[in-house]
Amino acid sequence: MNPIAEKERIIYLDVLRGFALCGILLVNMPSFLGERFVSDMGQVDRLLRLFFDLFIQTKFYTLFSALFGAGFILFIDRLRQKKRSLWIFVRRLTILFAIGLIHLLFWEGDILQTYAFCGFLLLLFVKTRPLTKLFIGLALQLYTVSLYLSIYLFAQSEGDRSIIEPDGRLTDLVAGRDLGGYFAYHATVQLPDALGNTLMLWPEILSLFLIGAYLMERFSVRPPTTRLLIVGFLVSLILSLPALTQIIRVHQGQVADGLINYFFVWLSGRTLAITYATAIALGVRAGLRMEGFRLLGRMALTNYLTHTLVFTVLVFLSGTYGTIPLWQGTLGALILLACQTFFSRWYLRHHHQGPIEALWRKGTYGKQKSTEL
């Protein structure tokens, strides 16, 4: 029952971040390619979409958000050790928000500006006790559950419908190779919509930040035992089964891309995220290297932005937005992740961190010399 040592704990965060990054790409990939109705998919794509709903969708932004909260505690602790101002973290968030806005000019699904916005709110909890963070985080989670439950009940009473909305305007712009129109459309339509979504999503994201911050503070003092990790893995897996069963039933005859399905997909994301996190922790504790995940995690921001760049360029140059099968997109995503793993390994042999991370750090600290990340 040995606790996780300090070095192991940081390795764990890198590995979990890299693992989550892989899932994030698979989640975002259908949006990169152009959303399609499940009813229009072939049998292979339908089965693949079921797999995504069971094990991919909503699970990984949950992990990433909790990791942001954990990273917040690490960053603030380092500022305190160096007796530096919290304004350094404010600059860090401001730069992240700016990166998110630029990212929105390429793709509507950016999450960075949402994280930055919620990060500013997280600053309100710098001096609160860990249990206070946990209670408020759980309260916001209960609010979010009630919101999704109301959507589910609405769909049950008024009739379910697909939540997929293929973007005909974007399809025309890509097919016509209209680069100026593409960026103008994102700047005038997609960017404002994304900022509006942030104003609706912030309670859920902030709650995950707070829970992640609590876990970092809690387990930094007293790391979880192996027994606790095993119990967490088994309990969260068992709790996931009812929602996973409902997802399978929906795909067998109801609206597979509708509100009811999305409710159970979201619900399973709460519990399976814990399953994944504890499984990774047990693997790290058992001595599994998982070097690929760790390399991807050390350059998570660079790799995340590269996902958008690669898929956007390929789809735009081919003019195939909204027509590429899901199985081909999945294969492309796996190839991209393999390439990023090799690139990350090479790059980190010569540099301490990824190129975007380095620019972010330089903007955060300016000309100050620091060993903080």
UniProtKB/TrEMBL annotation:
Q: Does the keyword Nucleotide-binding apply?
A: no
Q: Where is the DUF418 domain?
A: 226-367
- Looking at the UniProt entry, the stretches that span the membrane are 12-34, 54-76, 88-106, 112-128, 135-155, 199-216, 228-248, 260-284, 304-324, 330-348
Which terms are listed as keywords in the entry?
A: Membrane, Transmembrane, Transmembrane helix
The answer on whether this UniProt entry bears the keyword Membrane reads yes
As given in the record, the signal peptide range reads none
Q: Name one Pfam family in it.
A: DUF418
PANTHER family xrefs = HYPOTHETICAL MEMBRANE SPANNING PROTEIN (PTHR30590:SF3), INNER MEMBRANE PROTEIN (PTHR30590)
Q: What is this protein called?
A: DUF418 domain-containing protein
Species this chain originates from: Exiguobacterium oxidotolerans
